[in-house]
Write a structure and sequence with these properties.
Chitinase A, domain 3; five-stranded antiparallel beta sheet; 2 helices; PPIase_dom_sf; EC 5.2.1.8; elongated; peptidyl-prolyl cis-trans isomerase activity; chaperone; peptidylprolyl isomerase
Length: about 160
């Protein structure tokens, strides 16, 4: 079966950029997703389309089809008490910022006692990314998965 809308795909990946390895799924459970729904970057969705279980490939994705370019307006000064994840902040630490739209992951740029400068851009924004993919399984999505808008793992519905 080929990957297309309404298929559930299971795969492992290694991710690298120009600086070297970034992360890998291989020491964890494989990625499981419902193709045609949100959840992966655009360039990876396009690269997976039409492939089958057993396929292995590498693809380099430009920043614009990955996490986009960094936005200057994503850097802001916020009250330290709005950050969650640590009591004392250091540059480069990841924090959760409580916003009106809900929690959002940010990177600390410059800590202070009451104010902290944070970057709301995705940590991989502006980077060309290379994925090495091994597709393990492709199957038709169940009615339940389509209704929920995401893939269910072995044993059914898992939230």
């Amino acid at each position: 079966m080929q990957i297309s809308d309404k298929t559930v795909v299971q795969f492992h990946y290694d991710l690298s950029d120009s600086n070297g390895p970034v992360e890998s799924s291989r020491k964890h459970d494989p990625v499981l997703y419902l193709h045609g729904q949100a959840g992966l970057i655009d360039g990876l969705i396009e690269a997976l389309e039409g492939r089958s279980a057993g396929d292995s490939f590498s693809v380099t994705i430009p920043a614009d089809k990955a996490y986009g370019q960094p936005r200057d307006n994503a850097i802001q000064k916020v009250q330290a008490k709005r950050l969650q994840g640590a009591k004392k902040w250091k540059p480069g630490m990841i924090a959760v910022l409580q916003t009106e739209e809900g929690p959002r992951q940010v990177t600390v740029i410059k800590p202070g006692l009451s104010q902290v400068v944070v970057d709301g851009n995705h940590p991989l924004a502006g980077r060309e990314l290379t994925f090495t993919i091994d597709i393990l399984d492709v199957r038709a999505a169940s009615e339940d998965e389509m209704a929920h808008g995401h893939a269910h793992g072995t044993g059914g519905h898992q939230h």
